[in-house]
Amino acid sequence: MITLNIAKNASEWRREVFADEPSCALCGERATESHHIVYRSHLSPRALWIVENGIALCKKHHDECHATHNAILPKARLRAAVDAINCVESIPVKHFTKGRTA
Ligand SMILES: [Zn+2]
Ligand SMILES: [Zn+2]
To answer: 31 with 54: CB under 8 angstroms?
Structure first.
């Protein structure tokens, strides 16, 4: 059984990511940035705010994550993020109401 935490929006997501990991996951310094492990550009809208795909980092390690494409992150953390995303992306969604077009 898998439990996933999905936030409603960006600010809730940030709050949840920092609540799980108040300090930088890599060095323990105060975390100031929340990073999408699998980048937002690779996610569908419903997978954007999966808390398991977020990691709290200091500025230096956030920059390093992007520079190395996450090579500095622990493998287990990468796997957990990918598993959570695959899980969400495989759930069929039914549309009960018609979306409004602006
Ligand atoms: Zn750090
Ligand atoms: Zn980032």
So the answer is: no
Tens of pLDDT, residues 31-83: 999 999 999 999 999 899 999 999 999 999 999 999 999 999 999 999 999 99
Residue 41 Cα, ligand 2 centroid: separation in angstroms?
11
Distance 7 CA to ligand 1 centre (A): 24
Q: Ligand 1: distance of its center to the CA of 40 in Å?
A: 21
Of residues 93, 20, 92, 99, the one with CA closest to residue 53: 20
Task: Please state the domain extents for the chain.
Answer: 10-95
Note the pTM of the prediction, 2 decimals.
Answer: 0.84
| Rounded Cα–Cα distance for residues 17 and 10 (Å) | 10
Q: Kindly give the distance from the C-alpha atom of residue 61 to the centroid of ligand 1, in angstroms, as a whole number.
A: 5
- Cα of 69 from ligand 2 centre, angstroms: 10
